[in-house]
Amino acid sequence: MVHKxxxxxxxxxxxxxxxxxxxxxxxxxxxxxxxxAQPAIINIIFLLAGLVSFYFxxxxxxxxxxxxxxxxxxxxxxxxxxxxAGCFAxxxxxxxxxxxxxxxxxxxxxxxxxxNGPEFKVKSMKKLLLIVNPVSGKKVGLQxxxxxxxxxxxxxGMEVVLNATKEARHAxxxxxxxxxxxxxxxxxxxxxxxxxxxxxxxLARTDGVTIPVGLIPQGTGNSMAMDYKAVVxxxxxxxxxxVIIGGHAPLSDLNLITxxxxxxxxxxxxxxxxxxxxxxxxxxxxxxxxxxxLGNARYDICALWGLLxxxxxxxxxxxxxVVVAPQVSTFWITHTQHFGRGMxxxxxxxxxxxxFDCSAPEQLSAAxxxxxxxxVKGDGWNKHVTPYFRGREALFEFPTHEGLVNIDGEVMRxxxxxxxxxxxxxIVRFFAPQC
Length: 435
Fold this sequence. Notes:
There is one protein chain. The chain is of the alpha+beta class. The protein is about 35% helix and about 25% strand. The chain has helices at about 20-25, 30-35, 40-65, 75-100, 140-155, 170-175, 190-205, 225, 235-245, 290-295, 295-310, 365-375, and strands spanning about 1-5, 10, 125-130, 160-165, 185-190, 215, 250-260, 265-270, 275, 315-320, 320-330, 330-335, 340, 345, 355-360, 390, 395, 400-405, 410-415, 420-430. The strands form five sheets. It has a six-stranded antiparallel beta sheet with strand order 8-7-20-17-10-11, with helices on one face. The chain has a six-stranded antiparallel beta sheet with strand order 16-15-12-9-18-19. A hairpin with a 2-residue loop joins strand 10 (about 315-320) and strand 11 (about 320-330). Helix 4 (about 75-100) crosses helix 12 (about 365-375) and helix 5 runs parallel beside helix 9. The longest helix has 28 residues, at about 40-65.
C-alpha cells in the first residue's frame, strides 16, 4: 500500500490480515466469564435462585403470617433476611429504574425515510435476485420464500432467482461476486446480519454495480424492519413483498467504519449500529449458543453483568472535529432508530438525513445507566437523560491499543486505539412505501 506525500510516494507497511485470524484474535478479548458460561447452566442458576427466593419468602415471611405461634416456632432471622434479599434482587431491575425521575416524553413514531416521492420509482422490475438465510431467526426463511415471496413476485410478472446461504459470510460473497447487473433488485430474506453482509458484499464489488435492496425480515431482532413500523409491518411477509412490488426505493445513507490499519479487512459499512461497552460485555451479546435458551434476555444479562463489573474505560469522543465528550464509557452510533429487538436508541434518526445519531453517556451511576437502558428498550426517551449528538464524522480514541466493538450485531476487534465513523449519504437504495 502506498500513500502520496507531496510528490514523493511513501510506502506503508500493512499487516497481514485474514478473516480466520481475525476471529481468533477477537475471541481472546471477549469477556471470559460471559464467553465460557454455558446458557443451560445460567438458566438453571436463574431458576434455582427464583425457587430459593420463593421458598425463603414463603417460609420466612408469609408462613408466620398464617401459622400461629402455638403451631410452629418463630422462623429464623436468616430466612427473613434471605427472603428480603431475594425479593430485592428480583425486583431491582424492573422496579427501581421506574422510580427514578425521568421526563414523560414519547417521541413521535416515523418511518425510515423523510420523503419517498415518485422520483424514486424503480423503472424496471422484471428480474429479482432472492438471497435467503435458511437458519436466521425461526429458521423459516425458505418456507417464506417458497410459499409467499416467490409466488407473489411471479404473479406480479417478475422472474426470481433464489440463492440460499450455506455458511457465514456466504451472503457477502454472493453479493460481491454474482452478476448483479443482470438483476433489477436484490431481495433479502433473513435478519439484520444477512442484510449487513449483502450490503457490504455489494459495496465491495470491483465493478461498482449496486441495485435496490428489498427486505423481508426473518431474523431475531429485525432492527431495520422496526423502523418501518410506523408506516408498514415488514415482519408480515405479505406486506414486505407488497412494498417491494410497489417499486419505490429511495436513497439511503450508510456509515463507514474504520477500526484498524488494514485498508479493507478493518473497514466495514454499517446499516444499523456501532456500539461499544468498555467492559467488553457487548461481545457476549450475540453468542449463538445463547439464543435458543435465553433469546433477547441475553442483552439484559450482558448489560447487567457489565454494570456489576464496573470496569470503565475513558474514551474520548470527537464529532465533526469538536471534542464533545472527553471520557465516555459506552456509546452507540446508529443509522436506524432501532437496534436489538425493539430498542429505540435514536428516536430522531432517518435513513436519508446525511448524519448519524450518537448517544454517549459519560461516567454515570449504575442506577442511571439502568434507567437509560430501560428507556432505550421503551420508546426512546433516553435522549433526554444522556448526551445525544448528530454529525457526519466521529472519532473514538481509546486508552487501549485493541478492544471490541459491535457493528450491526457482529463483534469486531479494533486496533490502533481508534475507531472512525463516517456517514456517507445516499449510497444505496432500499424499498419503502411511498410517502
